[in-house]
Design a protein that fits this description.
This is RING-type domain-containing protein. It comes from Puccinia coronata f. sp. avenae. GO terms for molecular function: zinc ion binding. Residues 13-60 form the RING-type domain. This protein is mainly α. Among the domains are: 4-96, Herpes Virus-1; 251-441, no CATH class. It is 73% helix and 3% strand. The protein has helices spanning 37-49, 83-89, 100-288, 300-338, 347-374, 380-399, 406-419, 422-435, and strands at 4-5, 26-29, 34-36, 79-81, 92-93. The strands form two sheets. It has a three-stranded antiparallel sheet. Strands 1-5 form a two-stranded antiparallel sheet. Strand 2 and strand 3 form a beta hairpin. Helix 4 crosses helix 8.
């Protein structure tokens, strides 16, 4: 009979997961799991280093303490070496029956294997019972906890119901408060809208006031500048007023002196009037006696001399008029400075009668000179008109209130002296005497 070989297929190590190991060095735990011996030794050493008992890497069952492989195979050991079993199982049997020793040994090995399996099952049963006791204790504890939780839930439910009732009441109260608050909110919104409207209006008014204030500030600045200028102007005008008052006082004094001078001039003019009146009376007497008296004719030289005298009188009146206008202009400028413009009449309107009289005198003097050169008889009506014009001029001078100044004296006095001089009287008197009949005066 050929040899029959029995081979045991070993499982894979649950630690290193290696199933190609050629060395048959396996251990089995009491919970029935197979591992490499070296892997289990390293695993147990690591568990001890962490301060705990070794546990099965597969099912986490607590194993008894052991020292490597020295205790493997004992009844108290948690693991056995699997290769001791396989040595007896992997045997080449010869043809024929086994020997009794071999059978005894095989039976013993089977018994040991059964013991190992039994121990394993016993340990599993013990662990199961321990776990059952533990689970029962945990179940009892959980049941007590559940009862407590149920009571707590019931209590919390009552509290929740009470709280819900309170919350419903509070909700109703809050709804009432909310309605009140909504009304107040609407009222406040209306007030806010009104306040916003008033705020916008006040803001617009403020902007207008700011613009107005800016404009007023600008105007104030201008007014301050104007006030400063006016202050300076007032100071200047006060100084000018003092100066003008001083000049006014001087002019009043000069006016008084001028009035005296005018009175003197009027007296001089009035002194000339009787001579002319006497001449006119003589001429009138001559005219009334022309039917029996014929005045001697004037010589050409005397007629020319009389015409020259009349032209001199006309030139004197022209100079008086010119000086009179200059004085009027000077007084008008002074009155403008003093602000007293209505004090004197219009110089042009006031001078027009004098100018008319002077022009008439010039024209008549020229006509007299022409008539004298052509006719030997005198023009008595011309002399009468000149006499009336002289009187009118005297009245004008008396009515005129001229200020007395050195410039006025220098302008008036020479002009009057040139018109009314003794030379003029000496030139006129012989000519008039020649026209008077000596028989009229005996």
């Amino acid at each position: 009979m050929p040899e029959v070989t029995q081979v045991i297929a070993l499982p894979t190590c649950a630690i290193c997961r290696d199933d190609e190991d050629t060395e048959v060095n396996y251990v089995v735990t009491k919970c029935g799991h197979l591992f490499h011996g070296e892997c289990m030794t390293e695993w147990s050493r690591n568990e001890r280093n962490r301060g705990g008992n070794p546990r099965c890497p597969f099912c986490n069952t607590t194993l008894h303490s052991y020292n490597d492989y020295n205790d493997y195979g004992d009844r108290t050991s948690s693991m056995i070496r699997l290769h001791q079993l396989t040595k007896h199982r992997v045997t080449i049997l010869e043809d024929g029956k086994p020997t009794p020793e071999q059978e005894i040994k095989a039976a013993r090995d089977n018994l040991n294997t059964i013991k190992v399996i039994l121990n394993t099952k016993t340990d599993k049963l013990r662990l199961t019972e321990a776990e059952k006791t533990k689970l029962e204790a945990e179940n009892k504890s959980l049941k007590s906890t559940i009862d407590k939780l149920n009571k707590e839930i019931e209590l919390q439910k009552q509290k929740v119901d009470t709280r819900a009732a309170d919350l419903r009441k509070e909700k109703q109260s809050r709804q009432k408060d909310l309605a009140t608050h909504l009304e107040e909110k609407q009222h406040f919104q209306k007030q806010i809208a009104d306040a916003k409207y008033h705020y916008d209006r006040i803001r617009a008014e403020r902007a207008e006031l700011q613009k107005e204030m800016g404009r007023r500030q600008g105007e104030n600045g201008k007014l301050r500048g104007i006030m400063t200028n006016q202050t300076n102007t007032i100071s200047r005008l006060q100084a000018q007023s003092i100066q003008v008052n001083q000049e006014k006082a001087d002019l009043v004094q000069k006016l008084t002196t001028a009035q005296r001078t005018n009175q003197t001039l009027v007296s001089q003019l009035q002194a000339l009037v009787p001579n002319h009146q006497r001449y006119l009376n003589s001429i009138q007497a001559i005219q009334s006696n022309q039917h029996f008296y014929q005045a001697p004719s004037l010589e050409p030289a005397q007629s020319s001399q009389l015409a020259d005298v009349l032209q001199g009188l006309s030139g004197g009146f022209m100079r008086l008029e010119k000086e009179y206008k200059g004085i009027k202009k000077l007084l008008e400028e002074k009155n403008k400075k003093d602000g007293n413009r209505g004090r004197l009449e219009d110089p042009v309107e006031q001078d027009r009668p004098i100018q008319v009289h002077v022009e008439d005198i010039q024209e008549r003097s020229l006509s007299t000179s022409r008539a004298t050169s052509l006719a030997p008889e005198p023009r008595l009506d011309l002399m009468k008109s000149e006499q009336s014009e002289i009187r009118e001029l005297i009245q004008k001078v008396e009515a005129l209130k001229l200020p007395h100044t050195p410039a006025v004296d220098q302008k008036i006095t020479p002009a009057v002296d040139q018109v009314f001089t003794p030379a003029v009287d000496q030139m006129i008197a012989p000519a008039v005497d020649q026209m008077i009949d000596p028989r009229l005066f005996g």
